[in-house]
Amino acid sequence: MKKKFDPRARYISILCVFFALIVFYVIVLAKVQIEGSENVTDGSVAYTRTVTVSGLRGSIYDRNGVLLVGNATSYDVIMEYGAIPDTTRELNEAILDIMKVLEQTGTAENLSCDDYFPFTGAYPDLSYTEAVSYSDSKEYESLAEILSANKLDPHSTPAKDLADAMVKKYKLSSYTNEEIMTLLVVRYEMERVKFGAYQPVVLATGLAQESVPYIEEANIEGVTLKIGSERHYEYPGYASHILGRLGKIQAEDAEYYSEQGYPLNAYVGSSGCEKAFEKYLRGQDGTMEISYDAQGNIIKKTYIKEPIGGYDVYLTIDIELQIAAEDALKETVESLEYSDSGAVVSLDPDTGDILVIASYPTYDLTQFESIAYYNSLQNDPAKPLFDRALLGEYAPGSIYKIGSALAALEEGQISSSTLINCAGTYPYLHKPTCLGVGGVNGMHGNINVIRAIGISCNCFFYEIGYQMGIDSVTPYTSKLGLGVASGIELPERLGSVAGSAYRTQNSLTPWSQGDDLSAAIGQSDHTYTPLQIGVFMSSVVNGGNRYNAHLLHSVKKFYTKEVVYEYTPTVADSVQMSSATYDTLISGMRSVINSSSSLTRYFSSLDVPVGGKTGTAQVSGKKDYALFSGFAPLNDPEIVSVCVIEQGVNGGNAAIPVSRIFKSFFEAEVEE
Known about the structure:
The protein is an alpha+beta fold. Helix 3 (about 90-105) packs across helix 6 (about 175-195) and helix 16 (about 450-455) packs parallel to helix 22 (about 580-595). The N and C termini lie far apart (about 125 Å).
């Protein structure tokens, strides 16, 4: 008998096959997922890039370990080639979006993509900037290369033609003129750096932490943040001339830094201590491999070579003393009717340590990147960028009389008891007058060298110049620091040493005996820097040894503070000085303070006796320049200071900042 067909059996069979297939696919899928999970990172890598990781730059401290310049975390805004949108239009929109965010966060001054931008004006009325007119400038080199790459004549293509070519190339014509200008800035920078898989474009540098959330929240395709560091100044506006700045490697220095292993986009010390001690401060760069997925997200970072931080540099300056000096110099200059500038230095006479070095007017390193601020400094007639302490050349005036007295005493021309008559007018040659302190009808009568130094009698020193000639004096003053390199690690000028040799070398009017008179009192062709005068006076009060002036105290490793280098005081030269000569000069300089009621008043608050010498230098077409050099304590000097105030009229005015420095110095000693 034939069996009856049961449809339920068919359904059951189909269901069994279906469930079997499900089980099969689940097993296969699980296997794929398990095996794939083992290599998910490698499998998702779209591309990798090797980048240089800068070693953290060393910090700068004062002699007491007070931080002056350190590092603060900063952020660079970068556009990565592998993560940018696919179409030209989308990339243009992304550029506009990030530039808008940067503007909204107030970081427009942090833009770096416009550093080499060759256009000035507003689109479409553009012209080339002045920078590209110099054939040896980086701006010109970049422009010529880009013009050639765009098949335009690098020598004759107008700015408008290049801009129009870029507008067409990057499909910018549908944007507003303002938007076109923004896009041209970034597109030009992309061409300049050859934007590609291995070369991102940096849009802005040195952003502060508070700007980061806005950029991250914008989530603009292709834009990433790179963590870096920038210099942080603990005392803005102080010690600016000596601390210095960082800057990009200049074309003329590229070969040197390249040989030292620097990438050409590195920032290096460009002035001041940052430049002088670059070899200690620089970090050793490392390399890192960065892996990205197809969307441009970083999925892995691997150090190929770890970066190494730079050493910390300790300077000889005392920042508290520096602040006191700068404040006092500023207040004094601004209180005087004709003056607008000056300089002051302080040294340890037994080591050459520079405790203070200041120039006024000065500037604030924290604002230096502002173009408007920099232009204001450039246009200031008082020249705040000019470091008068190291580059200003001044006649020493009557401070030089200490050198004339020293030479005369050591050469036996006079003794401490020799009397020379001052009748108010020197009786020989062109009969110059005496402008010293006190006297009756301008006459000081018969005086010895101690009295002559104390009242700054010109006639006494005219006689020394007449009898000896300045060429017999300058060997002493040069050995003690006038007209020679001071030893400081920063650029300085050497000034000029008055005498027959100077006149001959510079094809000037031949030297005459009348010139000996002016030179003996610190006029004529004498010009020296405040630091040189400070070294000279230090050499005198320490007994005749000229120590190299220096700013570097020591170098230490970060964290461990292990000493890598420590400066050893170095005697650069010396003169033989008898104890009798030394005592005579010290007594004379003590007499300077006692002979002036104003000087006595300025230093009366100190518990230690002070010696010093005023100077007044005549400058053609201007009011007299004021100078003062002081030291203390009298019998065992620990500090020497020199102040120069341009158009300060009276040497006593230059003593005011010095008195404030001494007060700060000795009060600090008492506290210790």
